[in-house]
Amino acid sequence: MKENILIEKSKKFAIDIINLCDEIKGSASIINQLLRSGTSIGANIHEAQYAHGKNDFVAKLEISLKECNETEYWLELLFETNKINEMTYKDLKQKAGSIRRLLIASCKTAKENN
Predict the structure, then answer these.
(1) Is the per-residue pLDDT at 1 higher than 50?
(2) What pTM value is reported for the model?
């Protein structure tokens, strides 16, 4: 069940990231990094649904977790350089944190059930 929530939340988050990147002017390399990591979270969660066993499933979720962490870093940089406002930053940081916590719990559960 948690994976369905993860799929839904990560897809909505990716859409938010795409919309944000469309709005930001300048900082092309950071925007590209944010776009890659922010959309990769959901792509890897989606891919995990068709994993070749438990270890592959966990590996895909762990990649999503790393991408989530990277996304939070890029958001922090954009906020601290005044490319995004505080409200946008806090909203996306909260959403990424929620996804991160779900990923951690899902990885832990999958490892315990292995």
Answers:
(1) no
(2) 0.88
pLDDT at 23: 87
The H or E element that residue 23 is part of is: helix 2-23
**27 phi, psi to nearest 5 deg:** 55, 45
Q: Who contacts 47 (Cβ-Cβ below 8 Å, separation ≥6)?
A: 60
Q: What is the distance between the alpha carbons of residues 4 and 48, in angstroms, rounded to a whole number?
A: 11
The 8-class DSSP code of residue 83 comes to: S
- What are the CA-CA distances from residue 54 to residues 23, 33, 61 (Å)? 39, 29, 11
Q: What is the pLDDT of residues 46-82, one digit of tens each?
A: 999 999 999 999 999 999 999 999 999 999 999 999 9
Please state, in angstroms and rounded to a whole number, the distance separating the CA atoms of residues 85 and 54.
40
Long-range own/partner contacts, residues 38-41 (CB < 8 A, 24 or more apart):
38/13, 38/14, 38/67, 38/71, 38/74, 39/14, 40/64, 40/67, 41/10, 41/13, 41/14, 41/67, 41/68, 41/71, 41/99
92: pLDDT strictly greater than 70: yes
